[in-house]
Amino acid sequence: MWRILLFSFFLMGSMSAAHAQDTSWQSCRGMVGQAGPVVSDCRPIAGSIDPQGQEIWVRSIVHSPTDAHVRVLYVAGVASSEAWLNGQRLGANGRPGATAQDEMPGRYQAIFPIRETVWRPGENELVLRLSSFHGGLRFARPMSAVAVLPYPYPPRIAPLAITFLAAGTLLAAAFGFGVIHAMRRTGTSLILAAMAGVATLQAIVESLRTLFDYSYPLHGWRMSAIWVLAAIFAVLLVRYVSSRFLPGAGRLMTLASLGLVPATVLLPGFDVKTIWALILGVALAVVPAAAGVWRRLPGARPSLAYLVLFLALALGLPEWFTDLSYFLLAAALVLPLLMVEVVRLSRDDRGREAALTRAASRPDRLTVASARGVELVPIAEILAVVGADDYVELRLVGGRGLLHAARLDGLASQLPANFLRIHRSVIANLSRVQRLEREGDRWWLHLNEGVPLPVSRSRLPALREALEDVPVAAAA
Q1: What is the pTM of this model?
Q2: Which PROSITE patterns is this protein grouped with (predicted)?
């Protein structure tokens, strides 16, 4: 297993060289003879080696090494394999076969040592027998690398160390946001905890190929998990940014992400699916972040700048972004948000304490924690209260709107009796009612100003009963 780990680090930087050797392979008819493999009718392979659903024989000419380093054959892909060099068997990974019953699945990554006595001066014939009947999913490039490499090679542990560092940071952030949610029950904290947790899981799954010598049939499950986790992160990102900077359109943006991001499953190749799931999520999140900048909401400008950077790296360096920078950027995104959330909650606590002290002698006012601070709003000027995730929107007379850091359920108990919940996300001031009107199969409550408010069927009887007891409503 340690040899797989060693060469995995090397291949992170030398995969282009391995891919270059893939182009020299030929597809042949073959069989195992007494003196080794017998191949005939060899033809150049246009594209990558693909043993999925079949048994194939492939042949390549490799040159003998010009230095004293020992060489190994590295094979990585969803296939069982058996290899020969100059007719000498190098070894087998599983057992290739002509049918699924004949095949014994091998590992995703295999290393075949090459003895010095096997080499001939000049050109050497390398023959592989491959089969893949247990992969489950079909891959656009089933063999990620087939290459003759020097052994040993100094390990490059930096990428794995960075991934582990990012995973630890994300795990700490997930724990921190989970604690905040347990204390405050805020939806954004729960979303951020989920984002950090999902990114942590993806970092772990990404590292499995390097850390564990798993059987090739599991590779499809691993790649599927990577795409699923990336898609979940993208949807959660859209949900968080929308609830933070454009709460009125949060549900619409989330539905858009749920429609677009899962559609990336139709794209070819898991790397393409994963990168486009992230790109679509970030692109959708840019919209509410830009709206927050236009509305001059705190935190909107740095969030937009970070999302644009996220998007630029994803489009400009997609492979690097998918393999490594995604974790760094995700960690760098959620960790500052954790610190900002802690500071904001502390500031809100101090502001609320001061405001509650001032409001104790003003029962006709509602203490509102908004983006501009804490202010006392006359309850008589509130037309309606509309829920928006962790916030509520107070619709006031004169067309003014004010976001209040409170939950709709908790606010309902603070308002006087003339305020009634008419929808799961709406509380209306009945003293401002003009009329109750039906349009098709939906009911709408019209106030003496502002847009009509939706009325749910389950709350319609209570509203009608309450309107009978409100003289202002009857007069209107």
Answers
A1: 0.64
A2: HTH_LYTTR
